[in-house]
């Protein structure tokens, strides 16, 4: 579904990702792990089309057979990609509802959007008052992550990358977030979870675990690989 | 960056052929002023006021600060024209041409939508005006200022030109000599007008200067909200708009004056607006400036009585070849007076915004407080924003706060919105609308919607 071939990514002239080759398959759940600075977030942002990143000429990046290189982020989103940000930015004067109304403009009518937002907020245990406020402005870490999941649910993409959805989130919040992620898994969505911890894996069983180190994909394994990493660290890989 | 091929594309830039019944010759002289006054059938005191003002205008120098006004040629301006004779009492009585112009702006629709009164100005004369019976029943007077001079000379004479004398500045002098039209509002003691009074007007004749004169008097414990919204057609020549607005807020009264200004991009908009606020009175200016070539406008509040309060909330947007030099003045004369200025400005495509503000606390205004916050959003490298805040504090026991921020449209925020499937243009519009939200939320819904649309229109082709 999402295919990386010889994927080499630069910020200005600095190489961040080095020749990645992998194919994420439809309906599968992946966990992407690796030490800080190994390039996990860069991969997520590059897939989504962040303007700061450039590719080497022989890099190939495609989604459902469609070449993503040169495609602006909004078109990637429309074709079914979603990124839940590691540290979502705050936006003054705009509520999550206004953002979604613009994002779903012409596809879903306003009343339906409102109903769905309320529904998703309820299952994520997001306080109503939060929906009325400027997006992420003075939200707690957990609230920000829940709002990311809410957007994921509303936008209904095919492949979702969650960048540290479990960081800065308390036990109860993690539980409701995991519950929603499980619904996505059941709906045969493709999930890529970038994480440092095993705790989210109590709730979600990945089909594959990928390990990145220094911009390279160094190991691919089954679910138990995550447990091994937690016990032994990345040093011995 | 896309630039419209022809100015004809400008959405509100339609121009109906202008057929004035009377049009004065270009330029301003004593003869012309006398001509205007006699055509209007004015009393001597007004005629003399005009003549005195003309002398002041001729002596006064152009302001040496603010926007570049070098291109204004006072001799090329027609100072008075009359579109139809007298005021028409109803919509049906209007000439079809004028009706068509207004239909394009949507006046009949607006009227259906429970307007409490419409005073629409075609050229310099108020030709159409319908006042709901409610207003009359409450004793509220709402008419054009020309009519007020004739029908209510005692009230007008008592206040006219006392807050903004002709000597205030060159453009106030010009207005005082050549004024025509504008609104007169008188709210009796204790009367609260629930629905906002609205005046739509457009200027529609080449080289035609627009010099409305608005006078609002809110007697003790009364309340009124006045809205002026203007969109102007395109001209080929430079056009000058120099209005004067005087507002008297008596003890415990409350006046809100909302402006959504979208003059076409060749208009010089040089307006003097001032309110005098007595004890426990509240004056709120909400001022949105989107159009014009140059705007120079600093609504002010003279806080004369104890606990008088003044507010200016403003939005300015400057695009290519535009300079919005706007701000506010708060003068604290009495104890416990308070003021708040919130200014939001956006500059794009080489446009320039300036915030120019004055907070002055006079000796004896103990425990006065003032809060000033001006935020500028700059959309690209070519655009510019400046802040000129002046504080003159002559009293010790005061609380003065000033905050200023300048930000560029953030690439990371744009990317965040893009990643949700929102294209660059819409994302930028969303961010700009979010930026002005603290002020926009104070504007009545129908105007807020229009403002939102105008901003989205302005954002077309600015990013990407």
Please give the radius of gyration of chain B in angstroms. Answer: 22 Å
Instruction: Summarize the biggest pleated sheet of chain B.
Output: 11 strands, mixed
What amount of the residues of chain B lies in strands?
A: 35-45%
Please provide the count of β strands of chain B. 23
How would you describe what is shown here?
The complex is a heterodimer of chains A (237) and B (464). Chain A has helices spanning 40-48, 73-78, 96-103, 110-123, 128-131, 141-155, 171-186, 224-232, and strands at residues 2-11, 14-24, 29-33, 53-55, 60-63, 66-67, 81-84, 159-163, 190-194, 208-213, 216-221. Chain A is of the alpha/beta class. In chain A, strands 7-8-9-3-10-11 form a 6-stranded mixed β-sheet, with helices on both faces. In chain A, strands 1, 2, 4, 5 and 6 form a 5-stranded antiparallel β-sheet that branches. The longest helix of chain A has 16 residues, at 171-186. Chain A is globular, with a radius of gyration of 18 Å. Chain B has 464 residues and is an alpha/beta fold. Chain B folds into 2 domains: 5-297, no CATH class; 412-464, no CATH class. Chain B is built from 11 helices and 23 strands. In chain B, the strands form 3 sheets. In chain B, strands 5, 6, 8, 10, 11, 13, 15, 16, 18, 20 and 22 form an 11-stranded mixed β-sheet that branches. In chain B, strands 4-3-7-9-12-14-17-19-21-23 form a 10-stranded mixed β-sheet. The longest helix of chain B has 17 residues, at 424-440. Mean pLDDT of chain B is 82; it is low at 1-17, 84-89, 107-129, 201-209 and 232-238. Chain A binds chain B through residues 48-52, 72-74, 76-78, 82-83, 85, 88-89, 91-94, 98-100, 102-105, 134, 151, 155, and chain B through 410-413, 415-424, 426-427, 430-431, 433-438. Chain A: Keywords: ATP-binding, Nucleotide-binding.
